[in-house]
Amino acid sequence: RSVGYTGTSLYESWSLSMFNTLFTSLPVIFLGVFDKDLAASTLLAVPELYSIGREHKGFSFKLYAWWAAMGAAEAMMVFFIMFGIYGEALFTRDNRLYAMGSLAFSTCVIAISIKLQIIELHNKSGPAATAILLSVGGWWMWNLALSALYNKYNPIYHVNHGFIERFGRNPLWWLTLLLGVLTELGFDFASISSAPAR
Q1: Could you tell me the CA-to-CA distances from 6 to 61, 145, 182, 185 in Å, in that order?
Q2: Which pTM does this prediction carry?
Q3: For 171, how many CA atoms within 13 A lie in the half-sphere containing its CB?
Q4: What is the pLDDT of residue 97?
Q5: Which among 171, 139, 159, 143 has a CA at the least distance from the CA of 96?
Q6: 97, 159, 181, 197: least CB-packed within 10 angstroms?
Q7: How far apart are CA 128 and CA 26, in angstroms?
Q8: Could you tell me the maximum CA-CA distance found in the chain, to the nearest angstrom?
Q9: Is the pLDDT of residue 3 over 60?
Q10: 60 CB-near residues (< 8 Å, 6+ apart)
Q11: φ/ψ of residue 6, rounded to 5
């Protein structure tokens, strides 16, 4: 149930390869394309608003260090919630490596989508909801496809029918997922007031 010092990844390799490409790229793209702080007429009327970017005041080492610390703290929260609640449970149907990795992965995909499209986005819109739906929905479709089509004889991850028949039917897995996502988002909301100024 633990990778220990073997170097084995917590995440199944195909899912890991698709993380940035399929599951977290859409919220980032939609944020960049559809988010507007100010109307175009305001930006044209007050060109001084561009000075923050021109003078390199929008990003600093202090802000970078804050984001890195937030990322490390949230990664530890995801891992220890997943391992402490689901991984150490004695009464689960499947708490092997793939089930735990999929739980941590699911928490990240959902939390990233919600954070980018709800917490960080200034103008909530239909495309933001579409990005969440495509990203998170795509992740669940990917899990169903892997579970149905994966090679039966993978001795490390036990992916074949794992989501459909084993850990996907376990209420503790879903409860741990919900707790992980709520903890992540609660931490994000709590830290907004203490973040360094941009």
Answers
A1: 35, 28, 31, 32
A2: 0.83
A3: 0
A4: 82
A5: 159
A6: 197
A7: 10
A8: 64
A9: no
A10: 196
A11: -80, -20
| Tokens representing residue 70 in the block | 């937030």
Residue written as tokens 């995440």?
Answer: 11
User: Residue 158 has which token pair?
Assistant: 């036990």
Q: What tokens does 99 get?
A: 């089930």
pLDDT digits (tens, 9 = 90+) for 81-124: 998 998 888 777 777 888 888 899 999 999 988 888 888 777 77
Listed in sequence order, the residues at least 6 apart from 154 whose beta carbon sits closer than 8 Å to its beta carbon are 160
Q: How far apart are CA 80 and CA 20, in angstroms?
A: 23
Environment class of residue 185 by beta-carbon count within 10 Å: exposed (0-12), middle (13-18) or buried (19+)? middle
Taking the CA atoms of residue 116, residue 122, residue 125 and residue 128 in that order, the dihedral angle to the nearest 10 degrees is -10
Residue 50 has pLDDT above 60, yes or no: yes
Q: What is the pLDDT of residue 4?
A: 58
- Residue 20 corresponds to which tokens in the numbers above? 């940035």
Query: The tokens of 92 are what?
Result: 């689960």
CB-hemisphere CA count at 13 Å for 24? 16
Q: Which stretch, 117-131, 133-147, 173-187, has highest mean pLDDT?
A: 173-187
Q: Which two tokens stand for residue 47?
A: 């060109």
Phi-psi region of 35 (alpha: psi -120 to 50; beta: other; left: phi over 0): beta
